[in-house]
Amino acid sequence: MAATTHDLALGYLLELSADIRGALLMDRGGALLASAGLAPAGALADRGRRIVREVDALAPGGGEVVEVDVFAARGALFVLAEAAHVMVCTTNRTVNPGLIFYDMHAVLRDIDRAAAAEERRTPAKRRAPAGKRREAAGSGS
Amino acid sequence: MSRPRQRRALGGYAEEVAAAMRRRRDVRRPRVRVRVDHGEARVLEEGSAGAERLLALARELLDEREEAAGG
């Protein structure tokens, strides 16, 4: 199966930061878009939905940038909700949260920029090809 | 007259050790920190429902990660 843009972005994030061990990407509705470094189990989708629900509870307005860092005994979890996506990363405990969020912001912005560019391209594809448009214009005159 | 000074010095040392241990314990304590819309970060109250749910999710994903790594 071909890797999607989202899979590639998460792969890049794991390459960008050696501290990030696993990552998840969801849309704001909670649907799992991609995962990297974590077991490809169905339970991930459920966890992704639960994380998005928690983020929504922290910022009920929606659409705001939300950063959450959770330090547990065995490691840390970072959640970043920005624009249309929610990204989750797992790391060990000895990380600088500012640096992790910096990398997450960079990759998430690239994903949103790519999605916006794709949206701009899609209506252009739907338009009639240039040759046919010229023919239509010629027959009309 | 050097005794009180010595006691004070020992007391200061003990306080420093205690403070270092407190800091170390605090650093290792599980915590959940939230920042909304680039505002000031706030730490969720320990034991609050939201903090507990997020900690549980973090533990599940960290375990998942260890399983994926074969550890």
Sheet-strand content of chain B, in percent, reads: 5-15%
Q: What fraction of residues of chain A sit in β-strands?
A: 15-25%
| Neighbour order of strands in the largest sheet of chain B | 1-2
The number of helices of chain B is 2
The sequence of SSEs of chain B as H and E is HEEH
Tell me about the largest β-sheet of chain B.
Answer: 2 strands, antiparallel
SS class of chain A: alpha+beta
Gap between N and C termini of chain A, in Å?
50 Å
Give unreliable regions of chain A as ranges. none
Q: Which blocks of ≥5 consecutive residues of chain B have pLDDT under 50? A: none
Mean pLDDT of chain B: 84
Strand runs of chain B, count: 2
Radius of gyration of chain B: 20 Å
Shape estimate of chain A: globular
Spell out the key features of this protein:
heterodimer; A: 141 residues; alpha+beta; five-stranded antiparallel beta sheet; 4 helices; 5 strands; 49% helix; 25% strand; globular; B: 71 residues; mainly alpha; two-stranded antiparallel ribbon; 2 helices; 2 strands; elongated
Characterization of this structure:
- The complex is a heterodimer of chains A (141) and B (71).
- With 141 residues, chain A is an alpha+beta fold.
- Chain A contains four helices and five strands.
- In chain A, strands 2-1-5-4-3 form a five-stranded antiparallel β-sheet, sandwiched between helices.
- In chain A, a hairpin with a 2-residue loop joins strand 4 (75-82) and strand 5.
- In chain A, helix 1 (5-16) runs antiparallel to helix 3.
- The longest helix of chain A is centred in the last third of the chain and has 30 residues, at 97-126.
- Chain A is globular.
- Helix content of chain B is 66%, strand content 11%.
- Chain B has helices at residues 2-28, 49-68, and strands at residues 31-36, 42-43.
- With 71 residues, chain B is mainly α.
- Chain B has a two-stranded antiparallel sheet.
- Chain B is elongated.
- Classes of the chains: A alpha+beta (141), B mainly alpha (71).
- Chains A and B meet through strand 1, helix 2, strand 3 and strand 4 of A and strand 1 and helix 2 of B.
